[in-house]
Amino acid sequence: MIGVELVKLARRPRTWAAIGLLCLLPAVVAVFLATTRISPPPGQGAAFLSAVLQSGSLYPAAALALVLPIFLPIAVAVVAGDAVAGESAQGTLRYLLVRPVRRTALLVAKLVAVVVFVVGAVLAVAGTSYVVGVALFGAGDPVAVVRALPEVTGDDGGVAGTSPGGQQPASGPGGSQVGSSDAASSGAAGAQSGGQVGADTGDSTAAADPEAARERAQSSVSSLSGEALSPTDLAARLLGAMGYVVVSMLGVAAIALFLSTLTASSLGATLGALAALITSQVLVSLDAAASVTPYLPTRYWLAWIDFFRDPIFLRDITAGLWLQAGYVVVLMLAAWANFTTKDVTS
Amino acid sequence: MRDRVRGVGAPVAVGSGTTGARVVRWAVVVLVGALLVGVPAALSARPGEAQADPGELRDRIAASTDRPWTGYAEARAGLDLPRIPALSDVTTLLSGVTRLRGWYAAPDRARTDVLTAVGERDRYTTPTGQAVWDYGAELLTLVGADPVVRLPRPDDLLPPALARRLLAGAAALDPATALPSRRIGGVDAAGVRVTVADPGTTVGALDVWADAETGLPVAVEVRARGVADPLISTAFGELVQGPPDPTALVPQRGPGAGVTRSPTSDLFGVLGRGDGSSLPARLAGLDRERPQRRFPALGQYGTTLGQLVAVPLPADLAGTLLGGIDRAGAGRTLSVAGQGSALETPLLTLAVVRSTDGARAWVLSGLVPPATIDSGAADLLAGGQT
Prior knowledge:
- The complex is a heterodimer.
- By secondary structure, chain A is mostly helical.
- Chain A has helices at residues 2-11, 13-36, 59-67, 71-90, 93-98, 103-137, 142-148, 183-192, 202-208, 210-218, 231-262, 266-284, 315-339; strands at 221-222, 228-229.
- Chain A has 2 domains: 2-135 and 231-339, no CATH class; 142-156 and 168-219, no CATH class.
- Chain A has a two-stranded antiparallel sheet.
- Chain B folds into 3 domains: 16-46; 54-262, Lipoprotein localisation LolA/LolB/LppX (outer membrane lipoprotein receptor (LolB), chain A, Clam); 267-381, 3-Layer(aba) Sandwich (Protein Transport Mog1p, Chain A).
- Chain B contains 9 helices and 20 strands.
- In chain B, the strands form 3 sheets. Chain B has a 12-stranded mixed beta sheet, with helices on one face. In chain B, strands 15-16-20-19-18-17 form a 6-stranded antiparallel beta sheet, with helices on both faces. A two-stranded antiparallel sheet of chain B has the order 13-14.
């Protein structure tokens, strides 16, 4: 049963069109970023878009941030909304059900197919954006990193006000800090920046040592808390974020699937699921609705970024996993209650 | 063909259940849904059992500075201040929700992260000073020292810091009454309400819930006089008492990020290093406290919740602030000899006062009623002669 559904999914051109479009958006954004080198100002725009200019290996995270709010849920709602209603509309549902197939098993198979679609879509987005990111921005390539070394002197960590003499502010994005909303710190920083120049002797040694440069290049991505991330660490966090994004989409899938058992119109089911999501998004941002926000399907969607904090912040991630599980259980039960007793006439 | 299918499909069309079975199925759905929503809600809403003598609890809270913890807190401030250029950090902080992650080992070894949807801003306190990591700006700022009297910053809204700071400003004789206990961040916390008697401050009552054993505050609600709902409320959502992971307390700087040094990270700290000769010895009936070393231009008047803070402003910044307040349309024009605008909330008032010739200007602030601000502004313009 599941196999049949998966084959059906794979044979649909729409599946591939959806995945292709999902991959296209981050690629278009990457091309614009790479050609103009204009990243969103700090604290604005999608997450990680500023950081990818330094290392393309972070681009999968930025790509997830781009597709998560709208494109991915739409794709999921289209596929899940069509699951049962599509069969019904085409008149194939009754043919399907005359086979010795339990309706519950059919529902589960439909859900599994949607999950496989989500996993495939997220993997495709992450994979293509990694390739695009590394191709356009480099993976923290040694040349760019060595060029940055005068600012990034030898003492990683242990910066706690102990480094002698202090260092010159970075000429890169750090330099543009002056003028941020924190008038006090930036103003004071600006006043001081003329101070010690090249006080650290680490510059020349690091620049001259290709080994050090390579090591530096390998961990040229930092967590949101400033900790340098090794490629393995980064890969593990990316996998965690991708897994979480997949789970986040299960709620949408369950809503669309349930609606799909109510109506014979896939469009109706898809739009219904999207309407539910938009309502949820509006309420999440509304302070007055604080009492219900913990139960809204989109409440913890953005928690995937917590994988990139140090230490990893699991509170919202855990809450998000439970919430999505709750939606899947209740809505799949509702779908089962409706579908197993439904008169199928088309 | 159609007829044949209909014939075969007859059982299908009828469906595999009767009306009774359908009702049972939907009942299961409703029941599971209600359980999933109700059980967590009931668990979090169940009343606590902790009890403590309010006076003793207040003392224990004041003595809890050496209690280490790791946790996550959300602070909600409803002062509804408009966004004013040069003060946007403060106005944003006091007019919305701040998500904070904290590690606290000792007063001089702590870290607070302000979490946003796209990054974070971390403040490390180390024995040698402070360090601020800004992910968005990719910059680590090593801060020399901030003055004791300074603008509010996010780590002030952590329940332990807010409770201790505000209770220290309340009078020892202010009545403390017990509040029903609450379960907050996994702690069965006892509550105490300190009703502020001093008419010189807008603060009406401080509600603090704390671990009855350790005295560590886990939730705080600040009410203004005559306002029923708390204007500032902060509570732990997650809390582990005990020493934090020491590696979390070491400032980190991302690869490629810059490092800079700054003597202070606070606007009052920057301004307070200037010339304080324009500050009178007495303001609105309050005597000036001895200025902190290295911050001669920071005028602190009084030490209780009703204290006033006055700092001389450079002409350009005064113009920016006055313009910002006017543009926001939320200021009250002060009827003083010079020019003055006050941003008023039921709790906090912040005024900018400038002499008629524009040569002298100050920022004046406090948890005080409008009359105190008016009187303070007049005193500043009169050079402390009144």
